[in-house]
Amino acid sequence: MIEGSTLVSYPAGETGGRSTVVARVPVGEGHGTVVAETPFHPLDHTWPDQPADRGTIAGIAVTDCVTGAVADGEQRIHLGEDIPVRRGSSGWSWLVVHVTREPVPDGEVELAVDAEYRHALSTGHTACHLAALALNAALADRWRKEISADGLGNPDFDQTAIASSRILPGGSLDVYRLGKSLRRKGFVTEGLQESLPEITGKVCDTLKEWVAADAEVRIESPGRELTARRTWRCGLPEGEVTIPCGGTHLPSTSRLGAVTVSFELSQDGTELTMRTTAG
Ligand SMILES: [Zn+2]
Q1: pLDDT reported for residue 1
Q2: What's the confidence (pLDDT) of residue 3?
Q3: Is the pTM value of this prediction over 0.85?
Q4: From the CA of 192, how far away is ligand 1's center (Å)?
């Protein structure tokens, strides 16, 4: 019987811990293990941006880490894409499921996240948020109508146009949809291809300033449960910015090293891809 959601320590930057096995669930050919508290970041089933952590549980390699959910009063653990409700829906317990090839022993186990890989993903995730804010600023003069603003007061192109966001080790890949609905909201796409070098330059310059500013980055959490609504907070020179975020981050912008972006506009002009690289 599952009693409540898994408590997580990764938002605070933890990569190790000890906890007790509380449930097991088969995952394909593998074994899924749930513990009371874990430093492992699982892939989110609603917005799968940051990949799962790697590492070991009881010395056994964790080959994957997925989100699980159990409806109150039920036994069945739904996994990943098979979860029928959105992240954090009430009436459900939310679980971190560590997947291994061999079964994990009962009782208390040691959990160790691959710290180097985590660091690379945290680098990618912090760079991703900053690049999105810098892109909003660079595209601010392309809006003909008023739309919701980001934390720095710029039209929030990122949140309005984002189709998918993937955090990579040391970077990220964001795909924006520039279709009819975005144009109807007032975004001007004319001449975008020709403006890409200028936009790239603007975004890179802004990122350079923000890295040099050594701005503090924090994750604020209202609770320790997996699906607590956490917030990324960064004190940029232009102002303090917050973004809802379930991932992991570096403690300051200066830790990113050099951050650069490149853009690619699809042939038909309906998809803009931003590749961000840090380090
Ligand atoms: Zn995020």
Answers
A1: 65
A2: 79
A3: yes
A4: 26
